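Technical note accompanying the year-one report. For the benefit of new consortium partners, we illustrate the data format agreed upon in the data management plan: each record pairs a sequence with a structure-token string. No post-processing was applied to the example shown here.
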Amino acid sequence: MTDVSDNDLREAIDRIARTPDGEMLYLYFQRVLCEIPTCTGRRPLTEHHGRRSFAAQLMGLMAEGIGQSGSRGNRPVVFSVRERKRVDGHVSRRRVTADTVVAGWNDDASAGPNDRD
């Protein structure tokens, strides 16, 4: 049986972080931290918290290796969404249309009720 220390695990995670696949894994954890939970349970934020906490812990362990690998630099990262997700059986759609009056944007809606002719 081999004894594995916490330091051995940290070093392994650091080595992974310094690879191109480690960079992609780090970006995946970043996406997990930023995503909005779509679960339909009674407490979606609480249910999603464990996953986000784990991602944050791994990102913390990988941060030094990611920073020193130099491959990531300061370039922006954008995560694309390929399709709309169904939540509670409904497809997300725009609520504001071309016919929707938005106060402060449309000239007639920006005037107060007493300012109209």
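Partners are asked to follow this layout when depositing records. The chain has one domain: 6-72+86-110.
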